[in-house]
Design goal:
Helices cover 42% and strands 12% of the residues. The radius of gyration is 23 Å and the shape is globular. It starts with a helix and ends with a helix. It is α/β, with parallel strands linked by helices. The strands form three sheets. A seven-stranded mixed sheet has the order 2-8-7-6-5-3-4, with helices on both faces. A four-stranded antiparallel sheet has the order 9-10-13-12. Helix 2 crosses helix 5, helix 6 runs parallel beside helix 7 and helix 8 packs parallel to helix 9. Strand 3, helix 7 and strand 4 form a beta-alpha-beta unit.
């Protein structure tokens, strides 16, 4: 490539691009201004009432569906407002998305610290669905290769795999891991998955916590079983475990690499109570090597490759983060969400949430007109609690709970729909007891 081409291609040269990258470091230092004292009550991370006071959730209701589209705690609101003001008042400082190189790296570093991984292995997305789409569209698979998924997964997984099957002949097979979710067993789940694996299987497309039932898969046991299968396979034929982790992330106390999966796809605007419209994909280096880039990134390696006429070389997290313009004020506020969770303590949040879920399951199980759908065993359940109520459709029950008892619950968006509750750091044991009394009154 000639010097003039290097200077003029695309209206920006390699040197200009690298100079722009240098500007990203000061941009990353543009952290949100301090929150005014009147904007939120004093934050004591060791006091659960103080933690809840950081949210603007109405106190007129008990919020047992707040994890679905999370409310932002005060530090996240302040960060979003600060970045939005910067973008509105002086957008030039963030031109060409250059600032996202530095501020996006800050978000990736915060997430990496939270999940115990390398920032280079994290690609930023806008949602779990975007991450699922990137992974299943980009996997290097040949016609006839098999993807094994389950009958319990969410629409996003099914649709991403359907599109892949239609595009190049990948075989998608579904397996039922349990018949009665409340009676699910870890050994049964693992054995049914293994029975579905064939010599052509290249991918397991799984969900950590099923939003349809609240069943939590024994992922580490599954990973160990698949590792034994992979021991006799060539590198390009080994089975990859791809995990929709959105209802386990930030409600299970485990570092992501310890799960033994290859790809981990999640949003941060649910159990982390992070900025709405943010998510990420984590992958092992070996797994990233088996993924094609499907959306151009706005990273330095990608632009340098374009300007020099060479394939881009860089960290997979850089190359697989979709480029273009995003809701940057939300993405750049991710570190504040992580810091909020870390201040409270991941282990404390998990223990608090699980204790409420256990209390709720035990209370519902005593009601003769209620069928508990979620397993009571902690190793097979997480924060989601699902049930069926005799004489009520799920929507009718949720409406009665809201209108008569000021309790906000949800329904599972599946062919067979259940009432779904999600205890979290914005609910209390007293409110859990109130839920049990309200359900008991539904007749």
């Amino acid at each position: 490539m000639s010097a003039s081409t290097e200077t003029n291609q695309g209206g920006v040269g390699r040197r200009s691009l690298l100079r722009g990258a240098a500007l990203a470091a000061p941009a990353a230092a543009l952290l949100p201004a301090a929150t005014p004292a009147a904007a939120a009550p004093r934050f004591d991370p060791h006091n659960w009432r103080s933690v809840r006071d950081q949210f603007l959730l109405t106190r007129q209701h008990a919020h047992f569906s707040a994890f679905m589209l999370a409310s932002h705690p005060a530090p996240v609101r302040a960060a979003i407002a600060s970045f939005r003001e910067q973008l509105d008042s002086y957008p030039e400082q963030h031109q060409m998305g250059v600032a996202d190189i530095g501020l996006g790296a800050r978000s990736r570093a915060a997430l990496a610290g939270y999940i115990g991984a390398d920032p280079a292995e994290i690609a930023l997305t806008d949602s779990t669905t975007m991450g699922i789409g990137l992974v299943y569209a980009g996997l290097r698979l040949r016609p006839g290769d098999e993807v094994v998924t389950t009958t319990h997964d969410f629409y996003s997984t099914y649709e991403a795999l359907r599109l892949r099957r239609e595009s190049d002949g990948v075989v998608v097979r579904e397996v039922a891991l349990y018949t009665d979710p409340a009676a699910a067993r870890a050994d049964q789940i693992v054995s049914r998955l293994l029975a579905a694996v064939t010599a052509r299987t290249r991918v397991l497309a799984l969900t950590w916590v099923h939003s349809s039932t609240g069943v939590k898969l024994p992922i580490r046991r599954i990973a160990d079983a698949i590792a034994a299968v992979n021991a006799d396979r060539d590198a390009e034929d080994r089975i990859l475990i791809c995990l929709d982790a959105v209802h386990g992330f930030a409600v299970e106390d485990v570092d992501v690499p310890a799960l033994g999966v290859d790809f981990f796809m999640t949003a941060t605007h649910k159990w982390l109570f992070g900025p709405r419209g943010t998510g990420f994909v984590w992958g092992t280096p070996a797994a990233w090597a088996r993924l094609r880039t499907t959306i151009p990134s706005f990273s330095i390696p990608a632009f340098v490759g374009w300007l020099t006429g060479q394939p881009p070389v860089g960290a997979p997290g850089d190359l697989h983060s979709p480029g273009g313009y995003h809701s940057f004020e939300h993405r750049w506020a991710l570190p504040e969400a992580v810091a909020f969770h870390q201040a409270v303590g991941r282990d404390r949040i998990v223990a608090y949430t699980h204790a409420q879920a256990t209390q709720l399951k035990e209370g519902l199980a005593t009601l003769p007109h209620v069928r508990l759908v979620t397993p009571r065993a902690p190793e097979l359940s997480s924060g989601i609690v699902c049930c069926a109520i005799d004489g009520f459709g799920a929507e009718d029950a949720v409406t009665r709970l809201r209108e008569e008892h000021r309790i906000l619950a949800g329904t599972t968006p599946y062919r067979e729909s259940y009432v779904r509750f999600g205890p979290s750091l914005v609910t209390t044991p007293q409110e859990v007891a109130r839920v049990v009394r309200a359900v008991a009154a539904l007749r």
